[in-house]
Amino acid sequence: MTVSQAQGERRDTVFDGRIRLHGDAAPELEVIVELDDRFLILGHSSGELGRWEKDSVQVAPIGRGWFAFDIEEEQVTFLPRRPGHFAAATVDLVPVEETKKGMRRKARAKKLREAEALRTNLRLSRLRVIEEGKAILTSAQRGKFVELAKQ
Length: 151
Fold this sequence. Notes:
By secondary structure, this protein is α+β, with helices and mostly antiparallel strands. Helix content is 46%, strand content 32%.
């Protein structure tokens, strides 16, 4: 194995970013997350913060590049500098139901956006029709129309 291959392999298993503990008001902490064959290792510039077997850790994407780690019933959120690379490296740690849930959530959000766009277009069309109708009415008809529109 060449040096560049070793560096490429290491790059795919070591991720720097920020973490914060769920419910903790402390500022985010700069960390390094390393994934080897058996362990998820959490490190800091001052040294190793912890080491957990991969099969005891669950990782779930929670949006905008953030990931949630469930480690020993403690939830930690992690924002890697390269979220796409981290997601690809941790695909085996994400429970299948979380993946399906995320896909359903995205589909539901897309449908809601589409429905809201249709409602907005409908409102704009209604306003255009009302304004066009007002333009062809006489002043007496316009007064009666305004009264009816208020009801």
